[in-house]
Structures are given as structure tokens and as C-alpha cells.
Amino acid sequence: MRILLINPNTTASVTETAAAHVRRLIPAEIVPATGRFGARYIASRAAAAIAGHAALDALAAHVAGCDAVYLACFGDPGLLALKEVSPVPVVGMAEGALHLACTRGRRIGIVTGGVLWKPMLTEFVAMLGLTERLAGIRTVAPTGGEIARDPDAALDRLGKACRDCAEIDGADVVVLGGAALAGLAERVQPQVPVPVICSVEAGARAVIAAAGLAAGRPAAPAVESVGLSEELAGLLGR
Amino acid sequence: MRILLINPNTTASVTETAAAHVRRLIPAEIVPATGRFGARYIASRAAAAIAGHAALDALAAHVAGCDAVYLACFGDPGLLALKEVSPVPVVGMAEGALHLACTRGRRIGIVTGGVLWKPMLTEFVAMLGLTERLAGIRTVAPTGGEIARDPDAALDRLGKACRDCAEIDGADVVVLGGAALAGLAERVQPQVPVPVICSVEAGARAVIAAAGLAAGRPAAPAVESVGLSEELAGLLGR
Amino acid sequence: MRILLINPNTTASVTETAAAHVRRLIPAEIVPATGRFGARYIASRAAAAIAGHAALDALAAHVAGCDAVYLACFGDPGLLALKEVSPVPVVGMAEGALHLACTRGRRIGIVTGGVLWKPMLTEFVAMLGLTERLAGIRTVAPTGGEIARDPDAALDRLGKACRDCAEIDGADVVVLGGAALAGLAERVQPQVPVPVICSVEAGARAVIAAAGLAAGRPAAPAVESVGLSEELAGLLGR
Amino acid sequence: MRILLINPNTTASVTETAAAHVRRLIPAEIVPATGRFGARYIASRAAAAIAGHAALDALAAHVAGCDAVYLACFGDPGLLALKEVSPVPVVGMAEGALHLACTRGRRIGIVTGGVLWKPMLTEFVAMLGLTERLAGIRTVAPTGGEIARDPDAALDRLGKACRDCAEIDGADVVVLGGAALAGLAERVQPQVPVPVICSVEAGARAVIAAAGLAAGRPAAPAVESVGLSEELAGLLGR
Amino acid sequence: MRILLINPNTTASVTETAAAHVRRLIPAEIVPATGRFGARYIASRAAAAIAGHAALDALAAHVAGCDAVYLACFGDPGLLALKEVSPVPVVGMAEGALHLACTRGRRIGIVTGGVLWKPMLTEFVAMLGLTERLAGIRTVAPTGGEIARDPDAALDRLGKACRDCAEIDGADVVVLGGAALAGLAERVQPQVPVPVICSVEAGARAVIAAAGLAAGRPAAPAVESVGLSEELAGLLGR
Amino acid sequence: MRILLINPNTTASVTETAAAHVRRLIPAEIVPATGRFGARYIASRAAAAIAGHAALDALAAHVAGCDAVYLACFGDPGLLALKEVSPVPVVGMAEGALHLACTRGRRIGIVTGGVLWKPMLTEFVAMLGLTERLAGIRTVAPTGGEIARDPDAALDRLGKACRDCAEIDGADVVVLGGAALAGLAERVQPQVPVPVICSVEAGARAVIAAAGLAAGRPAAPAVESVGLSEELAGLLGR
């Protein structure tokens, strides 16, 4: 199986971290792609809105020959737009990790980096229809980008946030979200009394599970466009 | 009062139609802006995702000197992202029209062009928290773009959809949504037993009402970016 | 434009305060009306139930010649009943202020005087369908009536309540509710890190915005009655 | 046990019908009271708003010496206001009948007379928090008042509405609502494949069940008033 | 009236406590039945799942000649299954007590023994559709079984939990839940500022209220089974 | 990986059908287990309540040496109870299939055999918190057991139900639910315009995805019991 892993921010080292983590866990070929334009790290609604465009742009450029697409940014910018135009199944990191987490606990906690993600993820969980399963969302001050540059400095803050999800919010499973946090779940786990799930791994497992099922996608109407990459214009104009 | 009217699709004639309609109704200076890139008409999630970026791009280029921003696309692509970074109040066409419609009826119907808008608007209404007020959403097959090119051909279909909102869905007010449908509400009204509201007008009235109140906006963290317009990069990096 | 401003409690000085505040802000003729019977200040469900009748009674007596009705009591007693029988648009103070506040922030806080208002407003917000937008409702011990008599004594308590809405409840905009609190928002604002909206002003702006749209009202069936004012009996019996 | 049965409309014959029906079924002394002012029959929001005042007025006049209050109008105008000031338990006809119906079926249908009741009851059910249990509300054109004057003429229409609740809406129990419809449930039952509950009887059974439990009521703050009956002013001013 | 009181756990002394408490309050013949298999006390989902089977088994064995069934375990294991196959009305202890409590207060608190009951009751309340009425659920560490063996030791903890429901969660009525807690409500009441309702008594009152109404039950299809008691196999195979 | 596949009804041939289907698709060792007691097919709440006990009984008897448990009955009787006491992850067939389906479509349709399953599955979907994602549930008259005995006879009815889910209810993916329907999805697919998912396969894929993640389970308190199998008593009493 060949999976297109799209990191819709513009920092290639985050793409590589996530792809390497997935390659260690999943028996599939991983094709990494990084956003061509937009914020270095996505930590605001404006950056996420631009990233939705960048993710479409990346999908149009690289999807040929792939069996599935892994939108590997926790918060899944442009998720439904990608599903609309993609010729193969698309699963988002937060989407996949949260649905899988639901089979491991009744009430899900989410911990990630960047304080603006809390309202954005609250709405994302509502869009998935999973609000009732949500125990709470806790963010730590450093963004994913800052955590990626110095993970050790963030471990205690992440551990405390996960613990508070369990002990204060009542979560019985916690998703540690973010491509930049790949692999930190197992390091944080000893500080937390409930299972901590790595969003990069869980999302990848959900991609594998979903990709195997029979495909099918809504047919979006063709539309003319201007100022887009040739591939994206082609995808919209089909 | 000086209002930046952003049409985030790339068809300048739609911008002019909406701006002209607003100028007739509202005693304010209207500064029109059209998306620099993206679909000619927005009638799918992919087009809307790109339009969110285009709307940010337009705001960054033209907001200086304006007192408020009117995001004049029914469906409001990028609405919360624009509110996040704008130095002045931003109101979306669907947002403003729907909140105003709530004061005129208990249960709101929505009619617009383009069949893919139904699920998109269903989620948009949920994001506004107004689902309980929604009687139903009905779309007609021609998109806003097609209706703009030949409004007469669409009048009966729009009238029937509005009537069905009232008689089948139980709406006691109907919003006729879409920049390309500016001015059609009064032409459709004779066919419909409940008030039909023009989204372009109602949204503009909501901009005026909201703009007068004391301002305030969340401070988004500065973030470095690549590949964006200079103005948009500046807005994100502040 | 000629607006009937109904204060459904029986304290004429509150009516005058609200009318004067609106006249300063809104270019419209204001026709003030005070409830003929009921509680001096509305701070309980029983007082509000009686005020619904008093508001209908005032509308029947004074609506002739007006273009719109402003039900100027935060909590809007009798709102839907007035809309049902009024020949012109009716907007309530809480209704209008809350819908307008929704365009200025994602999560709305409400602060008012009188501890019994909290459950009453909780249900009112649910009736508007805006529960999901509500960050929290906080009341201070003095009722609107007591605050009207000595506003300076209440400023700090109101400021603290608004601040708690922002800092504890997560509101990004706060509505300071109550006819008796007209004009206090700007005095409280310096103590609060998010915008504070004056319900009297915001409600009035919503009246103006709504009144301009094409009218339409449900036709209530005529019903015979006893023991009511001649005008109200006439309105019901039409 | 002595129960104050308040009919908040102004038609004494409806009070007598309901009281007689209750007396046949319930071993308690029934003290009937009719509204002093307001509509002859309650079939609109305006009439219901006035009836809330009239019900308070009746409670103030007659509650002395009673053990419980039965607000015997399906739709329960003023219910929470009465609970707020009453020295003894208050149960509304719709409130009691619906909660009892919930123990007899998963999904509840409601049938009553007067087309404007549908939105009013929809909101009432939401206020009770029972929306999820509601299969549907169906109204017949004649109002309760008209049905009371000629019940035979309405039986088939009521039967059809109850049947549609079961067969189309999926109700597994139907509440036939309205003081004026006392006793019609057993006459309609043969036409309906699921149990039909008489709201007058079910509400009365709920009064008995609730009245026996230990009392307790919220303490409303005293408030001065004008233009009310001496007893009601006394109740508010305590 | 003859009521089958089913205690679906396997501790006969709890059955006797509940039956004796009901006999003191309700003028009906009480036929007690205890689960033939399963946990001594029900304080987990596994024990509750087994108890659903045991309750069906008891109903099949003892319902003949009874007019109604009282499923006397707070949490009502198997409630809808019993309603499905029973020839007479079935009311659960939590079901009946909570619906009755709704007529006594707007927001209901629940206090019971056994920490695992909190998520179970949260879901049960949701299944009843009463989530919006719920102020909070608080459990004390000893299970119902432990409280039954030494009620005096638990009084202060129960009192504190009820008080917290009122003062922190905002409950205006509290249900003290559990067959093993029969009669403790009146002993806890002096410590609590809002009414405390005994679930055993309130449930029994709801059984009486519901049993008097006309019956009717869904017809479950007959199904062959193995390994069940002869009576239960007969009930399923009818 | 060694997976315990529990069929909680008492028909061993259904267990074998499901196990064989899973073995063809999933590279894992499947240990099949059939309920020791209860209904031959589960098509009512009573049968499902007994099956919850039977599933616990089977888990206690056979879980030793397994890495995960697949509760292979669509409707997942006893799901949360099994999760509570199991030493390894447990995923239910409906749980797993529905969460996976959510990544393939916005609105999920469900088709299964046995008319009583509709309300049961409606509540199950609500318990999962996925109600908002549900387009509709349609059942065909033959039960799973009857379909298993003669699948060809049911294909057209199943196809029509799936088609109605898509065309009338608006589903963009349909789950064909039931152990007895293993393998029918691909045969039904040609009649349906949206993807049809086999619940047996999808559930198994979800088991694999979930089982790989780090484990963790709530610790249920030990409880004494009577009349249960030695293994189940041991599991509860640990």
C-alpha cells in the first residue's frame, strides 16, 4: 500500500518526523509532501485556512499512484475538501485518531501545543459529531513547532496536561495531538494514569483500516478557476 | 462609514452586482474586492477552502482605511480566520443574514443555488449554533454563477424552493442566499407565503449594526510564512 | 423611523433612562411606553409572566403609527406573543443584543442584576437556539432597579462579573444586560479584557437593522376575551 | 387531599368539565378556579401570555388551604412562575401527562386542538427537556373550545391525528391534550393502534404522585407592584 | 393493586428493605422477587448487564397475577427489555423517581453509592432524554450494599454529596438513589437546603400513577432460545 | 495476533460464518465462541439483554491467551460491560464499523434484518455519540437468522433498503450490519449508488487497528456473585 502523507504546513522537517514515525509502525510505502505556501507552523485559524488550500495543492500534485491519503496535521485543515476531490480515500490525523480513541475509552481527552487550537479543535470535534465523547481539550503554551525543536522541554507540561485531562476532566483515554509530537506519547505515558495515544500512529492505523474498504467518493461538479497550480486547477475542473 | 466588501470568488461581475445592490440600500462607502485566485464560482468544499485563503489575501490587501469588512459570499469562507486577523469588525453574508432573520421568524429556511451547498450550509449553520432555528435548506440545480448569468430562468425554481421551505419545512421566514442572487428576493416574494429576505441586503444591514459597536479582537500569535502575498504574510507575522 | 420602546415593568424612570440612551445613539423617533401593571422591577418568573401581559397591553395601546417595536427589557417578557399580534416588527432587547453579539465573538457572556435572572436567561438563550454560543451568565446581587438607583455602587461588582465571564467562562464578548444599566458598558469596559456590549444600544441597533427588511407576520386566529383593555381585546379579536 | 384546579382561560364550563372528569378518577377534593381575565380559549401565544398572569392571579386568590395546585391547561401557561411563588406543589397538565407518558412509551405523540399550539408545544417540550422523547405533535383545526362545544364532530379528526402520530411519526404512546378534551381519549382509543392517554387524567395522577413527596420551593425576592389584585400583590411582595 | 417488586441483585435483604419501605407508603400489595443469579450488589456495568437477564428471569417467574412491575434497582437494569415482554406496565426506580423529580425542580441532582454508577447513570439519564434537566451526579465511595449494612456511617457523606449537588451543581431537588438507601432521604434532609427525594418512594409513586392508565405494549416477535429458565424461554417464545 | 470472536447469540453456524469471513480478510488467528444460553437470534431488547450476560460468560471462558476481543454481533450487546472487565481490548462490530464508516462518508446509513433493531440501534448510535452522523436506519422484515438461512431471498430487499438510505435519507455510505450478513455487502453493492460496507469486515479492521495501540482498562471493583459460571464469577470477583 502506498500512502500520500500530506503535511500542510511549510516545515519539511515536521513532514519528515511524521513520515519516519509512521514508517516505523506501519507496513506501507509513505510518500511525504509538504505545503508549498503558508505558515511555518499552524497555530491559528488564519494559518489553518491557508493550509486547507495548501493541502489541496499538495494532493493535486502528488496523489497519482497512491492508494490513500493521510492528512497529517492534527486539526485536519481542508479535510472535507480533500475527501471531495480525491480519487482515493483520505483520512485526517485528528479524525482517525479520535475515532480510534473512541473504541478505547468513553471520554476522550485531547492535548496539543498552541493555545489557539482549543477553540479550533472544539469546533472540529463538533464537526465530527463527537462532542459528547469529549472530556476536554488542553493546550500547552509552546506550539507544535516549538515542541518539535525542543521536545524535552515540553515533556513535563504535556504530562501535566494529560494528567489533568484524566483527573480533572474525567478522560479515560488521552490523544496527544500533532505531527510535531510524533513519538512523544510513549515518553509522556509514565506520568499519566490512563492510556495516552499518539495521534500520528493512531491516524496512520485508521488510514490503513479505512483504505482497505471499498472506495467511493462524491462527484464534485467541475468548476473553472484562476491563479491555482495547474494540477489543482485540473482537479477542480474535471 | 467605509466598508470593504470582499467577494472571495474570482468573478468580478458578481462583486459589482453585490456592491451595487448594497450601495442602493446602505448609506456607506463600499470598497469592492474580488478574489485573486480560486474558482470562478464557489459551489463545492474545495472551491470554498481555496476561497478562505483568497478572502484573507483580499483583506490583507485592502482593509487599510476601512471601518468594517463585509465577507460577501453566502457560506462565508474563512469567516473566523478573517475575524481573527482583521483590525476592524468582520461580518459574513450568511452569518449576518441568518442572525437578522432570527428576529423575523422562529424557523428559518435557506434557499440558494448549487446542490453541494446544502451539506456545507448545514455545517455552517451548526457552527453558528443556529441549527435549532433551521427549518430546512433547499438548493436549486443552477449554481449562483449560472443564476447570475440568467436570473429570469431561475426565478420559478427559486420561488418553488422558497415555497417548499414554508409549506413543507415549516419555515416562517426564508433567506435567499448568495451574492449572485442580489435583488432577486423581491422578485421571488410574490410566489412565497412568508417573508423572503435578500442575503446581500440583510448581511449588509448586519455589518452596519455590528460595526457601530465598540471593537475588540483576539490577538493571534505572529507566525512566519512562505509563498503568501506580502500583505498577508505581514498580517500573519504581526 | 418611529420606534415604540416598551418597558414592561412599571417604573417610568427606567423607561426614560433607556429611551434617552437610545435617542443619543440612534437616528429615530422613540415613543416610550411603560407597563400599566405589574412589578416595579422584573426580577423573578412571576414578575416576568405578568410583564408579558403588560407588554401586550402597551403594544395594543401605542403601536398605531409606529414602524417597529423595541421590547426594552432584557429577558424580553412576552416576546413571541408580541411578534404574533404586532402589525410591525418587534425585536427584544436580549434577542437583538445577543444575535448582534454573536457577530463579535464566538462565545458570549451575559452579566445582569438580580440572581433569579440566571435560570430565566438560560432558558431564554435556549429558546433563541443560542445555547452553544453561551460562555456563561453571571448575575450580581443588586437587581436592575437597585442598580438604576445607585449605579456607582454597582460598577465594581459588574466589572468583576464581566471579567469572570472572560477569564473563567471563556467569553470573548460580554453583553451587559438590562434597561436599567443603559450606558454602564462604557464605564465597565476599562476593567474587562474583552468587548463589553450595552444591551440597550445593541438591541436598538438590531431593531433598526430588522425593521428595514420587508415585514410579514403570522396571522393569529381571532379570539374573544374578557377583562382586558379595550385595545388589547381588539388586537386579540381581530 | 385538597387540590386547586386552575383553568387559566375564562370559560367556566371548561373548568367544570375538567374538574368533573378528575373527580371521577381521583380520590381528592377538587377546588376549581377559572381565569378572571383573558381569552375565552387559549389558542395563541398572546392568549397564553395573558393566561400566565391570570393563573398567578387565580393561585393567589384560592391557594389557601390547598395541598397542591393542578394547572389544568395543556401547555401550562405560567407554569414556572406559579411554581416560584406557590406555597404548595404545582404540576401542569402537559408537564405531568408528558412525564407520565414517558414511562409508557419511548416516543411520545401529542394531539390537540388549535393549529398555533404546535410551535408553542414544541417549545414547551423543549423547556421540559423532553424533545428527544417526542415523536411528533399534530393539531386538528378546531380549537379546544370548539371541540368542547361539539366533541362528536371532532372524534374522527382526533382519531386520524393520533393514528398518524403512531403510524407516520413512530409514536408508541399518544397524549390527547387539552382540558376541553377531558374524557375523549377512551372514545378515540379504538381508532388508534397504540395507547392514547387523557391529559386531564394523567396530569391529575401526576399531581397526586408529586404532592405526596416532601415539599420545598425556591424563595423569590419580594417585589413591590402596581395594578394587580390584592392577593397577587401580596404573594409577590412577601 | 398488586405490584411485583423486582430487586435484580441477589441480596434478599435489600429486597426486603425496599419492599417494607414501599408497603409503609403505598396502599398496594407488594410481591417481592430477588435475582436468582448475578452480583450481590450492582456497582459495575458487568454486574448490571447480568442483572438485566436476572430481572427478565424474575419477571417471567412471578408476573402472573400482578398489575404492574416495579424494577426496584436505581439504574434500572434491563428496563426496556422488561417493558418489551411484560404483560403489565413496568416502571423502573430511577425512571420513575427522575420523572417525578422533574415536576419538583428544574435541575435534578442525583446521589448514590458506588463510584462506577456515575458514568452508568449519566448514560441512563441520556437514554431517558433528561440530560438537560440534570444538574449533576455525585457518588459516595461505599456501594449501596455497604451503605445498607451500615447506614449511619454513610449519612454524613451522603449529606455532603447532596449539599454539593445543591450548592455547587445548582440542583434545586436531589434524588437519593438506590434500593439499599430506602428511608435515608428524610434522615439526610436536615443537612440539605433543597428537597431530597427517596428514590424507592418516588419510584413506587410513579408505578402507582402509571399503572392506573390504560395499558398497551409492543409485540415482540417470538424467538427460540436455549439455556434459559422455562418461564423466560416461554416469555420470549410466545 | 489472536482474536477472540464472540457471537453472543446461540447459533454456532452464525459464529462460523462470521469467523470464516474474517479469516479470509484479516491476517490474524480467530478464536470463535458462541453464547451458551439465550435466543437463537437476537432481534429484540429481551434477547439482547440476555446476550449481554452470555457475551460476558463467553469472554470469561475464552479470553485467556487472546490479544483482543471482537464482539461480533451488530448491536454489540454488553459492549461496555465487556470493556470494563476484559484484560485485553474489546471492539464491537457496530462500534468498529460505524467509527470506520465515519471516515468514508459524512452521513451514515445502516441496514440490517429484524424490525425491532431500529430503535435499539438508534439508541446504540446515540450511546456512541454519533447521532449527528446518522442519515437513517432501515430494517428489512427477515431477521439476521432468517437471512443467514436464505441470503438470496433477502438480497433485493437489502439492496432496496440501502438504496433508500442513499436516495431518501441522504446517506453517503451505508453499513450493512449483522454477523449473519457477512459477505453480502459486495453482492448488494451493484444495486446501491454509494459505498456499502460489510460490518463484519469493517468491525474486524477496527479490532486490528485498535488492538495495536497501548492498552489500558478501568479497574472495576471486585464483587461477590451467585449462580454464574466459575470463570465469570472469577472475573467479577478479581
TrEMBL record, chains A, B, C, D, E, F:
Q: Which Pfam families match?
A: Asp_Glu_race (PF01177)
| One annotated GO molecular function | amino-acid racemase activity
Q: Which domain of life is it from?
A: Bacteria
Cross-referenced InterPro entries? Asp/Glu/hydantoin_racemase (IPR015942), Hydantoin_racemase-like (IPR052186), Iso_Racemase_Enz_sf (IPR053714)
Q: Name the family the entry cites.
A: Belongs to the HyuE racemase family.
Question: What is the designated name of this protein?
Answer: Asp/Glu racemase
